[in-house]
Structure formats: structure tokens, C-alpha cells
Amino acid sequence: MQYFTSDTHFFHERLLGMSEFAPRPFLNVEDMNDTIVNNWNARVKDGDVVYHLGDIAILHTRPEKKAYQEIFEVLNSLNGRLVLIKGNHDPRNLFKYLEKNNYQVDNAGHNKFEFHDVGVLIKMNHVQYYMTHYPMMMGIVKQIINLHGHIHHSSVPIKEDINVGVDTPETDYLDNKPPFGTPFSQQEIEKMVAGKRMDFMKRK
Known about the structure:
Elements: E1 2-5, H1 29-43, E2 49-52, H2 64-76, E3 81-85, H3 92-100, E4 113-116, E5 119-124, E6 127-132, E7 144-148, E8 161-163, E9 184-185, H4 186-203
């Protein structure tokens, strides 16, 4: 199975609390981290793939290597293989550290982590999904959807752009909103795409 998420911001203390930008009503980062990990692992299995569209964590512990070790431990506790697309808060040195500590997870030769600086293009049900951290303005397109993060509790006023971050308001297009931090399934992505398209049609 394939899943999609973004902007977990593990360890990011400044996001705690209620705000219009990124509502996260947790008392501390440990509670936030554990909630995301538990909800992630309740859905994702070891053989699954999760596309993480950037802004993995923010931790200013020094020395830098200690911060990266703590982030690695959290990511290593997550089920599935992680395809990591670099966000604006993801230092290149973090990716280098994860690459150095990468390891094979199955007999097919897949590693725990896969890295991309800009984006990844995949096809599901005859639709192309271009996954980036920043939302894209693609112009008039057919059968191409941009899955993105970065803008937290906001939505791009373009029907082909779907925010898959953990704070996304576009879960309003779903009948059942998954628990906080749960990566979205292909079916949920398709429902968000269809719901946003219908929403825009009603506005005409």
C-alpha cells in the first residue's frame, strides 16, 4: 500500500497549542511525537510505502549529530519505507545522516529511506500525482494532481492542488477524518481530489 503525508514537524515546540496556522493542542513535543507515531503505525504496515512531502522535524539540540540521532530514532520507529521529499525545514545534513544510517528492509533490496530534493511523480488509477513540498501552480492540466505540504492549515485555491500535511483542512472532503498524524491512503487522496473538484464546480 502507498500512503502520503507531510509536515510532521517532530520535536517542533513552537507549533504546540491552538493557532490558525497549525493547530496542535499538545502539552509537549513528546505527546505530539507519540501521537503521530502511534496513529501512523496503526495504519501503515512494514511492507507499505509512505511518501513524506517534507518538513520532517525541527530540533535545535546541540551538537547537531545528537539532534539527527533523535530524529532518526523517531523515523526508525515508523512502520513502512519512507520516501522523503526535502522540505524547507529539512537540512541537507539531516538527509546525509539518514543516508549514512540507512539500511535494507526486505529481500527486494529496498532501503528504509529514499531521498528526493524536489519531487516525485507517480501514477495511480490513470492519474499522475506530482508530489512536492511547496504547492505548485501548474496551469491548465489534465489528469495531473499536485500533492503538497508546507502551508499547514491552509488550502490552495486551485482544485488540482491537494494539501496532504498533518494539519490540512482538506480532510473536510472526507467522510471520516483520520486521527492526527495518520498518513492518507490512496482512497482518501482520491476522495479529497473529487471533493475539491466538486467544491470548485459549485462555485461557478
